[in-house]
Amino acid sequence: MTKAEVELAEQARIKKEIQQKYNQLAKDLKNDPMSNGYRFILLKGNNCTLVNRVMETRPYWNKIDSIKTSLFDFKWSPFSGPIRFDFLGKHGEKNLVNHFEFHGALT
């Protein structure tokens, strides 16, 4: 192996190790009864006030203020642009969104 190949292999190993730790952290947080249940994100726009009122009536659902995280259970957006479909379910859990991938795309 060349030096570059060894470095790439080491970087891949480190990345995999970090992903495993992050996935375990997400699972531990999810299974922790003190973690306050499920997390949801609301993006401002069409009907977000209504969705927020409905979600506030659900026990064990908590709003996340940061839209930068991928550790959520449900994300509501007025349009599909800000939803990263390729990241859904990356942390050992399923993420729900209010849009279908490729919805409205021309085929």
Descriptive account of the structure:
The chain is α/β, with parallel strands linked by helices and 107 residues long. The chain has one domain. It is built from 2 helices and 4 strands. A 4-stranded parallel beta sheet has the order 2-1-3-4, with helices on one face.
Write the layout of secondary structure elements.
Blueprint: H1 3-31, E1 38-42, H2 48-56, E2 61-63, E3 74-76, E4 96-97
Parallel strand pairs: 1-2, 1-3, 3-4
Number of helices: 2
As a percent range, the share of strand residues is 5-15%
Strand order of the largest sheet: 2-1-3-4
Distance between the first and last residues' Cα: 45 Å
The major pleated sheet works out as: 4 strands, parallel
Order of helices and strands: HEHEEE
- The helix content, as a percent range, equals 25-40%
Rg (C-alpha, Å): 18 Å
Mean pLDDT: 77
Unreliable stretches: none
Q: Which shape, going by the Cα principal axes?
A: elongated
* Alpha-beta content class: alpha/beta
- Number of spatially distinct domains: 1
The total beta strand count reads: 4
How would you sum up this structure in a few lines?
The protein has one domain (3-97).
